[in-house]
Design a protein that fits this description.
Blueprint lengths: L2 H32 L6 H34 L1
Helix pairs in contact: 1-2
Length: about 80
């Protein structure tokens, strides 16, 4: 497998991970918005931390994908 093909496969995999993380993030934010008045504080804090963690993961995957795209461009 050539380096170009390998980078394309890695970018494709990062797109899948990015999509999954975005779906999880949207779901957590929606749950948080719907249950802000009903859920116990502990659960709200855990959900907020999860949103923060998943959002950080989204940013990391996005940056990794752009690095791979830049690397692909240089070939």
């Amino acid at each position: 497998m050539s380096k170009t093909d390998k980078l394309k496969e890695e970018i494709g995999w990062l797109k899948v991970v990015f999509g999954i993380l975005v779906a999880i993030d949207i779901s957590l934010v929606a749950w948080l918005a719907q249950n802000i008045t009903k859920a116990p504080i502990f659960l709200l804090v855990i959900c907020a931390l999860a949103v923060l963690s998943v959002t950080t993961g989204i940013v990391w995957v996005n940056r990794a994908a752009y690095r791979k795209i830049d690397e692909l461009e240089e070939l």
